[in-house]
Design goal:
This protein is an alpha+beta fold and 247 residues long. The chain is built from eight helices and five strands. Strands 1-2-5-3-4 form a five-stranded mixed sheet.
Length: 247
C-alpha cells in the first residue's frame, strides 16, 4: 500500500517536469521571431539613416583624444559623403570633388563639407589669388577649369561667396573688404561662365567681407582660414528667389 502511494506520487511529479521543454522551445522560437523581424526592419531602412544612427551613437559614447578641443565658427556636418543617402546626387558630387582634390593634392587649400545650404567647396584665397587682389592667378586656372567642368555636368544652382579676414584694406580699387570679397566672388563666377558651358541662370555671387568668419580673427592661421571663396551647390529648397534678389 505504501509502495503504491510512493509510485503514484512519483508519477504525479513527472508530469510538470516533463513539459518544461515546451516552455524553453516556445521562448526560443519567440526570440528567433523577434530577431528576424528586426532584420526585416533594418532591410527596409535607408542606409543613410543607419549610418546617421551609428555616427550619433559613437559620438555620444566616444571620448575625444587628448589635446583635442572644439573650434568655434560656422556649424557644418562632418566632411563625409556617407551621412546622406549614397544614391543622393550631392553625395555623388561630394565623391567626385573629393577625388579631384586628391588628384590635385590641394588638401591644404580645399575643403568639402555639408551645411544647411548644401554642399560647400571651400577654397583658400591663396589657391586663387595673390595678396590683396581679385584677379584670378594663373596657377588657379587648371583647378577652376576642372571645377567648372563638374558644375556644367550638374543641374544644381551654384552660389559663389567671397569672404575676407578683419584686417582693413583701403585702396583705390577696394575701399573695404566688402569690395574685395565681392570682386573675388564675381571674378570666379565670370571665369565659370566664360570658360564653361554653364547657364548664367544657375549662378550667383555675393561678398560678405569679414562678417561671416569661420573662426575668430585672433591669429595669422585663423585669418588665413577666413580668407576664402566658397562654391556652394545649393539644396533645392535653398535656390535663390528672383523676387527676393530684386528687392
Amino acid at each position: 500500500m505504501g509502495d503504491s502511494k510512493k509510485h503514484k506520487r512519483k508519477k504525479g511529479n513527472e508530469g510538470p517536469a516533463g513539459g518544461g521543454w515546451e516552455i524553453v522551445y516556445s521562448g526560443f522560437v519567440l526570440i528567433l521571431l523577434c530577431f528576424f523581424i528586426m532584420l526585416s526592419s533594418f532591410s527596409t531602412m535607408e542606409e543613410a539613416k543607419i549610418m546617421r544612427f551609428v555616427k550619433s551613437f559613437v559620438d555620444a559614447v566616444g571620448i575625444m583624444q587628448g589635446g583635442l578641443k572644439f573650434d568655434s565658427g560656422a556649424t557644418v556636418l562632418p566632411k563625409s559623403a556617407d551621412i546622406v543617402d549614397s544614391n543622393d546626387k550631392l553625395a555623388q558630387l561630394f565623391s567626385e570633388l573629393a577625388e579631384l582634390n586628391e588628384r590635385l593634392k590641394k588638401e591644404k587649400d580645399i575643403t568639402l563639407a555639408y551645411s544647411t545650404k548644401g554642399l560647400v567647396m571651400r577654397l583658400s584665397d591663396r589657391a586663387l589669388f595673390d595678396v590683396g587682389v581679385a584677379n584670378i592667378s594663373p596657377q588657379a586656372v587648371p583647378l577652376l577649369q576642372k571645377v567648372g567642368d563638374i558644375i556644367a555636368r550638374t543641374n544644381f544652382e551654384v552660389r559663389i561667396e567671397g569672404h575676407s579676414d578683419n584686417l582693413p584694406i583701403k585702396t583705390v580699387q577696394f575701399p573695404s573688404n566688402w569690395e574685395l570679397s565681392t570682386a573675388r566672388a564675381v571674378n570666379v563666377l565670370r571665369f565659370f561662365l566664360e570658360t564653361g558651358r554653364i547657364s548664367s541662370q544657375r549662378m550667383s555671387a555675393v561678398g560678405f567681407g569679414e562678417f561671416q568668419p569661420m573662426v575668430p580673427n585672433d591669429s595669422i592661421e585663423h585669418r588665413a582660414q577666413n580668407r576664402r571663396v566658397e562654391i556652394i551647390f545649393l539644396h533645392s529648397d535653398q535656390k535663390p528667389n528672383p523676387v527676393e534678389e530684386a528687392l
